[in-house]
Amino acid sequence: MTQLSASVSIRNMAKARKASGGSAHHSGGARHSSSKSQKKKTLGTPPPAQRGGVELVDPRVQGQLKTYDEALALFHQQKFARAKQGLEEVLKGPSKELADRARMHLKITEQRMRPSQEQNPRSAEDYYQRGVAMMNIGRWDEARENLDKARKAAPKSDHIHYALAALDCLTGEADSALENLKVAIQLRPENRYHARNDEDFAFLQEDPRFTELLYPEKDGLAS
After folding, report:
1. Taking the model in full, what pTM does it have?
2. pLDDT-derived band of residue 75, with 50, 70 and 90 as boundaries?
3. How far is residue 181 from each of residues 1, 22, 63, 145, 205, measured CA to CA in Å?
4. For the CA atoms of 201, 207, 213, 214, what is the dihedral angle to 10 degrees?
């Protein structure tokens, strides 16, 4: 082989290697692009909906959470008997975390429902707490006796008048309920807004005096 033909052959081999290397590089780029696209798809999948660490994908868990929220609202309104029923329902649901939370509040609820804690009330607040506890378990006469003693000891305490108004509604005493609620609102105007959403006053919903007491702005607009 002559020197010239050998040189041409070497150049041709170099070109062939370069073309082969370029093809490999292109293939690697395609693989990289495919991997990047797959990664984007993976990252685009939204995580399961959660609230407070509780997954809400399962509709049974959503129902359990709703029951828990309702029971907790009743607990804060000191309606312990109804709160207890709701919390016991939460225990039957699939979410262990919600069941654990409900179990904790259930323990507190049961403690607050025990009248033995206030066997010998001494202050207005003691009588009030015992009266509310009696009201929550449907012992109306004992509830009224204790709330009347609380009002006598602290006649300017709005929450005592408010509790008496609620008790009056539960026992069908419309006139007394309106009078006690009126005093509670005079002592603390915020009670007007609490009463608007309080189920204990359902008995008065159709009474125009109740509407007039809770929505005085409507009368102002009408006049």
Report:
1. 0.49
2. confident
3. 118, 88, 35, 18, 14
4. 50
- What's the pLDDT tens digit per position in 31-57? 544 554 454 444 555 555 666 556 667
213 in Cβ contact with 192 (< 8 Å) = yes
CATH number of 119-222: 2.80.10.50, 1.25.40.10, 3.30.1330.10, 3.40.50.970? 1.25.40.10
**H or E, element range at 50:** strand 50-51
Check: CB of residue 50 under 8 Å from CB of residue 56: yes
Q: In the structure encoding, which two tokens stand for residue 181, read together?
A: 């609620």
State residue 184's pLDDT score: 95
Token digits of residue 185: 């609102």
The sign of the torsion formed by the CA atoms of 88, 90, 93, 94 equals negative
d(CA 23, CA 186): 88
How much is the mean pLDDT over the chain? 77
Rg of the chain, C-alpha, whole Å: 36
Helices marked H in the chain — which ranges?
3-43, 59-76, 80-90, 96-113, 124-136, 140-153, 158-170, 174-187, 191-196, 208-214, 216-222
- In the predicted model, what is the mean pLDDT of residues 65-77? 89
Q: Which residue has the higher pLDDT, 18 or 71?
A: 71
